[in-house]
Amino acid sequence: MKTKILKIDPLDFNEKDLIEVCNVIKSGGLVAFPTETVYGLGASAFEEKAVDNIFKVKGRAKDNPLIVHVDRFEKLLEIAEVAEKYFEAINKLTPGPVTFVLKQKINLPKNVTAGLKTVGVRIPAHPVARKLCKCAGPIAAPSANLSGKPSPTDSQAVIEDLFGKIDFIIDAGNSEFGLESTIIDLTSEIPIVLRPGPITIEQLESIFGKVEIPQFVIDASSVENPKAPGMKYRHYAPEKPVYRFNKVQREKVIKKALSENGVFICPEEHKKFYPDDRIMILGKLSEPYSIAQNLFKVLREFDRSNFNVAFIEAFEEKGILLSVMNRLKKASVEVEL
Description:
This protein is of the alpha/beta class. It has 2 domains: 216 residues, DHBP synthase (Alpha-Beta Complex); 93 residues, Rossmann fold, CATH 3.40.50.11030. Helix content is 32%, strand content 20%. It is built from 12 helices and 16 strands. Strands 1, 2, 3, 4, 5, 6, 7, 8, 9, 10 and 11 form an 11-stranded mixed beta sheet that branches. Strands 14-13-15-12-16 form a 5-stranded parallel beta sheet, with helices on both faces. It starts with a strand and ends with a strand. This is Threonylcarbamoyl-AMP synthase.
């Protein structure tokens, strides 16, 4: 398959620039498109065959539901049932990097929802993604990568994984947040966080009041029957091994890294602890969102490097760094010394 690449300035474009891409989606094609979280691999949410091709191209398990992207709140209400008490909260959080799990109002193809009676819906903030949803209609999309690999935060990562396998790649630069959306289940009396993301637990609590945080979110453990993406399978991992450790293990881990051609993936503030020639900078602890922005990009850079193994010191699990640690726990294993 010949993959076309469309380069767009997200701050200077109009709907006419997206006409060809919209027609591809409407006719059952697959398009990789930018969002504020990571790049998505989209198909019409109403085209079962097109959605099936998402699973084939990615190598994605069929019991892993997709997220439906829409351009505005009114479209969300057409697809899903929302308790009126949540209207204000949803409007505060959208458009933005958050997905709501809700009861279906219409019958979507079963491969979109993995046969569940619920559906994950979000209103992206990225201008290109919203215009695409406006002209093509609701779009079902997971991240635009091969299943299990680090999510793509720029078009180059999409090209690495999917070039020649899909119809279009829209190149609109780097993703703003670099982590997949926060997912919150609004089908229960108390909202339940199913996946932490750019909208932090603290922010959700300030809007919803009490929210439930299941142990599987903290542990990043698997759930047998997932209601949303990221709950069951190993995700976000490079091909080479990645180990995480605590700072009390630092000295022993340095010795291990030297003997195994290892590299330390660390924030700017911690580079003083490690050998100069064995460092990949992740961001700054003083700017924690920079760590989230760079996580997947650095994991991909590590895969392309000459190092055999990577070591990452665990972060304190609060704010956006709880979301970072959720991804790291799925992408790595604890070091054994």
